[in-house]
Each structure stands twice: as C-alpha cells, then as structure tokens.
Design brief:
By secondary structure, the protein is of the alpha+beta class. The chain is built from five helices and twelve strands. Helix 1 packs across helix 3.
C-alpha cells in the first residue's frame, strides 16, 4: 500500500474547506445591506465633500446683469479601507484521521463569521449615532445631531434628530416626518427627500409592525385613519439591541448620499502550513469601509423607552 504524502494529505482537506466555507457564507444573514448602500469600491480613498450654491435664484431685470452664484465647499472627510480577519488552526491529526464532519464545522464557522461581521460593524456605527465622541460626518458631528452645518448658510442649524428623546409611536413618527420634509439641503433650500425605511431593534419589532401595517390609528376606538407609517418599509435589525433597545431610525429615499458600505474584497481565505507542528492555519478576511456621505439620509430618535 502506497503512503500518502503530506502534500496529498492536505490537498484532500482543501475541497472540504471550500465547500463548508461557502455554506457558512450562505447561512450568514445580512441585515446591513438593507440599511447601507452597498457597492464595490473603485478608488483607494473615498471623499465626502459638500458643495453649496447661494440657494434661491434672484430675479433678473430687463437688460440687467445676472446675480452671480457663490459656490462654497464644505469640510472634506475621507475613508480608507480596513481589513477584518480571523484564523483557525487545524491539527495534522484531525485531518489525518479523516474527521470530515469536524473539519466541515470549523470551515463553516469561518464562513459564517466573515458573513456576519458586517452586521456587527453596521450596528456599532448606528449605536454611536448620538455619541459626540465618534464624529461620523464631514462637519465633525455625530451621525445624528441637532446642530449639523448647512454649508451654504454657514449655520449650524441642520438637524436629523428630535430635540428630545421620544418613544416609538404614531405621534413620534409624525414629528419625524414633519422635520424630515422640512430639512435643509447644503444650499439652505428644502431638500427633496421622502421617508422610506423604519429601522428598529428586535425589542421594538412588534410595535413597529403594527405602526407600519395597519391603516388605522393604534388603540383608537373611533377608527381614526393613520397619516404616517404605512408607507415605511420595516427593517428589524437585531444587532442594534446590543447597543440600545429603544432607539430607532428612519431612512430616506435619497440616492445622492447617505450611509454607504464599500467592498474592496468581500470574503477570502488564505491557508499556510506550520512546519514545526505539521498543522495548517486558515485565515478568513474581508476589506471594506463604511460611513456616511450625508447626514440627511438618516433620522435618528434617541428614544427612552
């Protein structure tokens, strides 16, 4: 009987790794893709710069000169790619004894880890949305604030947060809608946006389902009609519960800016042998960046309960 070489020994493990790593990738649910605009990056550095004109045009009189526009540039914010990685080591004995089931579990876990990590990072980003220690926008403010800079007017009057925390309710959503529809663009004029998604932690899922599915006011004995909520797509983001069980967010339909996730490398694995131990270490990783191009895409409510 011929002896199996070490190279052949490890080569037999490789198909097991590829199969179960792929299964793990498929099992990882991706909530962040419903919240962030996901794309493949094309540049090494991503820039977010707000530009603003003077706002409303001025009437031109007959034979008179056109009033020149003043173009202002806001603060520049940049994002670089970051590598997120993890590794596992498989013993020579485990593979030699044909422990295929155990090997499959190891590599499936690797695949699931690389698939689920973006959700944890996205939840952490939203978890810091009201924390001034984590500036997330080009004006140096936290993601959700009441004093964002309006570039065209040089005034810190932009707001994508209610003035005081409120619990999730029809009244709260009405307040959010009103403020979103009167939000100022970079030039100081009303921005053309529409509330599109309601993002909630699992703790608020049941209440949010009622608010977004029924055509009547909750608890009303008079069958009074609702005026907001029905048109919102509900996104239940369980990873938010690790940061807050009461905060929620309303996203807009604005495609020009907002929360972004850019891939450089989606998911990959590398394997190398540890000569002294006859073991092999497999690493899984991805390279990406995420952030916010424009704070107007999201409205946050730091609810108290």
């Amino acid at each position: 009987m011929s002896t199996i070489t070490t190279a052949e020994h490890w080569a037999a493990v490789e198909p097991v790794k590829r199969k179960h790593f792929g299964l793990g990738l498929k099992k990882g649910k991706r909530h962040f893709e419903k919240i962030f605009r996901v794309s493949q990056g094309t540049e090494p550095v991503r820039h977010a710069i707000e530009w603003a004109g003077t706002g409303q045009l001025v009437q031109k009189t007959e034979n008179g000169n056109v009033t020149p526009l003043t173009i202002r540039q806001g603060t520049n914010k940049t994002w670089l790619y970051t590598v997120y990685a993890g590794s596992v080591t498989v013993s020579f004995e485990l593979a030699r004894d044909n422990k295929v089931r155990e090997l499959g579990r190891v590599y499936e876990t690797m695949g699931r880890s690389v698939a689920c990590t973006p959700d944890y990072l996205a939840a952490q980003f939203l978890g810091r949305a009201f924390n001034s220690s984590y500036p997330a926008t080009a004006d140096g403010k936290e993601l959700c604030a009441t004093d964002h800079l309006i570039v065209g007017t040089a005034a810190s009057t932009g707001s994508n947060e209610l003035a005081s925390p409120q619990a999730l309710s029809e009244t709260t959503l009405e307040d959010v809608y009103t403020q979103m529809l009167t939000m100022s663009a970079s030039d100081g004029m009303i921005v053309d946006i529409k509330p599109e998604k309601l993002v909630v932690p699992a703790a608020l899922a049941n209440k949010a389902k009622k608010l977004t599915r029924t055509g009547k006011q909750l608890g009303s004995a008079n069958n009074d009609p609702k005026v907001v909520g029905d048109d919102l797509e509900l996104v239940v983001f369980p990873h938010l519960d690790a940061h807050s069980t009461t905060r929620f967010f309303v996203m807009t339909d604005w495609d020009l800016g907002g929360l972004f996730w850019e891939w450089d490398i989606k998911a990959d694995t590398l394997t190398d042998q540890n000569i002294n131990q006859l073991n092999k270490t497999s690493m899984t990783f991805f390279r990406a960046r995420h952030g916010a191009d424009d704070w107007r895409h999201i409205f946050g409510v730091a609810a108290t309960g």
